[in-house]
Amino acid sequence: SPQQLVQMGYFPCSPVYPTLAVSLDMLELVSTLFILAAPNERAWATTITKYLKNRGHEFATRDALRHRFSSALSQYQVLMQLVDGEMGKIIDDAR
Predict the structure, then answer these.
(1) What residues contact 18, with CB distance under 8 A and at least 6 apart?
(2) What global pTM score does this model have?
(3) How does pLDDT run along the chain (95 residues), one tens digit per residue?
(4) How many CB atoms lie under 10 A from the CB of residue 73?
């Protein structure tokens, strides 16, 4: 289940029946990279796809990884913004 994936350090590409889970560390790395460099999910996904293909992994379609990775990244970033907002409220209330 998606909750179990998160507990293991992975973020699902979908809240229901995820077909891809991305490391939380990787999502944080990409989020930071996209703050410091022009965001380019297509280039990132193409690089990862080629990297994995060279190691024997195959994907059903050309953009299969990109779509699922983009979904996971977007959902992760929204969740982190919500967490940051809630933490800000808690800190403000404690002052």
Answers:
(1) 2, 5, 12
(2) 0.78
(3) 889 999 999 999 998 889 889 999 999 999 999 888 888 888 888 888 899 999 998 888 878 888 899 999 999 999 999 999 999 999 999 98
(4) 22
| Alpha-carbon span 9 to 43, nearest angstrom | 24
User: 41-70 as b/e, with b when 16 or more CB fall inside 10 Å?
Assistant: eeebbeebbeeeeeeeeeeeeeeebbebbb
Question: Domain-by-domain residue ranges, the chain?
Answer: 2-94
Q: Which amino acid is at 36?
A: L
Q: What sign results for the dihedral spanned by CA atoms 34, 37, 39, 44?
A: negative
* Lookup result for tokens 């983009």: 70
